[in-house]
Amino acid sequence: MKKPSISRVDIDDEKFGSLQKSPLGRVGGGALDFEEFFENGTLALHIIGPDGTILHANKAELDLMGYSAEEYFGRRIADFYVDRQSINDILARLTRGEKIDKYPARLRAKDGSIKHVEITSSGQFQQGQFVNSRCFTVDVTELTRARQDLTQKDDQFQQILDSLPVAVYTTDSHGRINYFNRAAAEFAGREPEIGKDEWCVTFRLFTADGQRLPHAECPMAIALRENRPVRNVEAIAQRPDGTFFPFLPFPTPIRDANGNLVGAVNTLVDLSDRKRIEDAGQHLSAIVESSFDAIVSKNLDGVITSWNRGAERLFGYSADEAIGESVTLLIPEDHQDEEPRIMERIRRGERVESFETVRQRKDGSRIPVSLTISPVRNAAGRIVGASKIARDVSAARESEHRIRMLMREVNHRVKNQYSVILSMIRETNKRSENPDDFERQVRERIMALARSHDLLVSADWKGATILELLMAQVKPFGDEDRIAVSGPPFTLTPNAVQYLGIAFHELATNSAKYGVLSANKGEISVAWEVDETPSGKRIRLTWNETDGPMVQSIANSGFGTVVLKRVTPQAVSGTGDLQYGPNGVVWTLEAPMAYVEASIFNEDIA
Hints:
- Helices cover 36% and strands 28% of the residues.
- Strands 6, 7, 8, 9, 10, 11 and 12 form a seven-stranded antiparallel beta sheet that branches. It has a five-stranded antiparallel beta sheet with strand order 2-1-5-4-3. It has a five-stranded antiparallel beta sheet with strand order 14-13-17-16-15.
- A hairpin with a 5-residue loop joins strand 9 and strand 10 (244-249).
- The chain is α+β, with helices and mostly antiparallel strands.
- Residues 1-32 and 601-606 have low confidence and may be disordered.
């Protein structure tokens, strides 16, 4: 394709029109040889036709894109734009007669590399028709990359600040906060307002001695006002929730390359931990002194160096009598071999976990104790002694009998659980139509039993209230709010918890299938009352469903019916009645309180 002559293209752009008048624009006294100027100029140039076809490009353009003239001329300029939308916008604006000035774009060179450029262009018109456009292309790839690198570094720097566990914030030269990290917001207990809050991120400030400190007089304000870092000025901050905490600020001015103040950065160090450590030292002394356990320190030679009141009570020696003496005065003759083994482990830095042994009082009597011994290190980390805690385990020994009794009781209860589970499996198996149905029903009933068991475990097998038991069994069905509960509070016996829990599960399951819990209407009332009778107190508990869908009823021979009419009532020496109204189930349990209430339950009855 024959390239158009640059000298024949009408160049009247104001940026280059002055060249016609320049002395440099005269060659041999003739007109400026534009073709020679642009062909060999360092500024990349291409000319496109009205359809976007490249009519001409100078050497700088070809070098930029890596193409020869034969490869470049005649192709559509849009083929080289990474973002098609950009060239479409440029061509549309040129067609409308607009000038393009430093339009940012990305071009793909022959080697596949991306060139970041700025396009300056204007269209040429003849008789109102767009005929061509000359486009000057400035390669700003390096500048763009430098900007990207700078932006990336800024992002990385901000990420570092954001991730710091230490509170950091910055202000402009007027003290207005323009950045804070998450730690600063958590430190202050509030979200500072960028561009509005001044000097400090904290809610209120006080001096170290508790005097109110205006924000305009805080260390950050002083650093900006006097253009100097401020150090070693402790303060107390108050959070919006009313809590106070001591801190140490490190405000430091920020200056530009010319040394002018442009802002400040402040790092806030919470001194709460340090203060707590200082207080802990005092508290520790008080705790050691007031501990009921004997706490004794000794050096590596076994000489007692500290002796608390607990040691006085346990061993009978006063501090004056014990400190400075060998710890062996507490060890009976037949246990003297323990101390060398203990000290050998202490020297290795090992902690001697709790073990039981025998020690000797001042009066010569022997006492069973539990000992825990830990190495004591100095500030340099070197082991200089040991700390020993001795606890009187006489009471623990005495409780072993009670523990054995408890184990027998646990064994009895576990057997009861097995009996209940076997009964559930047997009755469910009789009435299940298929293995999957059997597995589901058994699983649900065992889970119901487990929920009752969890209540007992959490209460150390002392029992649970009717409300707690009812809510635990109804919770899987998700409609606890639709159940009204009323009755005097008391604690059920463990036995009553297990069997009444099974009954509540069967009632809730039936209700979820056929009754109130299966629809968005109706309600369930669970009420109980305790009456005095000649034979003693009796409870009457009623589960009553009203205004629900028509009840299909539990099958007369179903496991649920067996539980509600026989199993649960017999377990508490009571009676059960199950009725089906047109819109709900009514189950009533009557039983002696002696078999139901834990506080008056007679273990002989069980």
